[in-house]
Write a structure and sequence with these properties.
- It is a single chain.
- This protein is an alpha/beta fold.
- It has 3 domains: 118 residues, Rossmann fold; 224 residues, tm_1862 like domain (pyruvate-formate lyase- activating enzyme, Alpha-Beta Horseshoe); 57 residues, OB fold (Dihydrolipoamide Acetyltransferase, E2P).
- It contains 14 helices and 18 strands.
- It has a 5-stranded mixed beta barrel. A 4-stranded parallel β-sheet has the order 1-2-3-4, with helices on both faces. It has a 3-stranded parallel β-sheet with strand order 5-8-9.
- α9 links the parallel β8 and β9.
- α8 packs parallel to α9 and α13 runs parallel beside α14.
Amino acid sequence: MQTLGCKLNQAETESLARKFIEAGYQVVSPDHAADIYLLNTCTVTHIADRKSRNLLRLAYRRNPRAFIVAMGCYAERARDDLGSIEGVSLVVGNRDKERLVEIVESMTNVPRRRSVQDSQQRLTFRTRALVKIQEGCSQPCSFCVVPRVRGREASRPDEEIITEVKARVAEGHKEVVLTGTRIGSYGHDGGLAGLVRRILKDTGIQRLRLSSLEPKDLTYGLLGLWGDRRICPHIHLPLQSGSDSVLKRMGRTYTTAEYERAVSLTREAIPNLALTSDIMVGFPGESENEFEESYRFCERIGFAKLHVFPYSARPGTRASRMTGGVRDSEKSRRCQLILALGRRSSILFGERFTGQNMNVLWEGCREGVWFGLTENYLRVFGCSQEQLTNQSLETTIVGQLDGSLWGELRTGCASL
């Protein structure tokens, strides 16, 4: 099983993996030969489309006799395109993903393992558990294909979510990330704030992280919940552009002034907040002056991390019919400028925590160096001779190297 794209895709893949394990299948890593390959695709850009096609072809080369399934957003948007790729056995859109185990079983005769050991196979995707609370978007932006492939907003029942969070805690997860297409639109009793209160009250989760919010979601009622330290002081607040005229063409629902007010309110409410964001460059008609406005706005806000990407025309969107396209070479130049700004901003944010003790959830180890995440989403590296995977430990931040924080643990060492 392999996933491209957003945390919602990742959450759905993990959920499907659990269902396949419960049905007696063994889940292996993507680079292993398998009888069944499942790729959860992404179609947010043409690059994501290309990656999806390439991975499907790679699966066929690994095992030409395998049953290869293309599922997810690209499958929902362009079923025939994916179905024509050599080796692809089945194309399943978002509406049928929940039934995938049943569908695959009806079309294959792959032997399954039913021993006690196999039925207790644990997922090894990540130390943080992703829990889907809703999907769909009812406020489409002019550039975005997601409403078309995900549909209108639909929320899971809160009891179902509480049950899943309890299950992840029972598995040993220290952190749960609430994810969806637009989690701020969660629509059951009390909305998102009510759901968060219930999770904090009814489960034993140590860390709760909210994946992505919009400026209008940041109400006093929601921000007040960060008084409980189990909620991670990290908010991803997509900006897309720091130019009001570009935001208007994008169909975004805020101005830069409204965005900045939301940022100020949030920083006042949440100490040590890490604010991360998405920035698009080269939107149709984006002039040099509009780009400079966006650059200066990002510089003024001072994000902890920026995800920067060039505009990619998506079939069927309003933006794909707009005139004034920006040359690819110019998009690349603007991307590099914002990326450099983002790196400087990240370093400045990280420097604030040198000498401080921070809680780090250690995720894994490569070549003797451990890596993990702080509550406010800072990547930390450190040395230890002990097994730290999925351990949440107080760690002293001793400095930065190439933009990464290094921490000193009582159980080991740190080096710069």
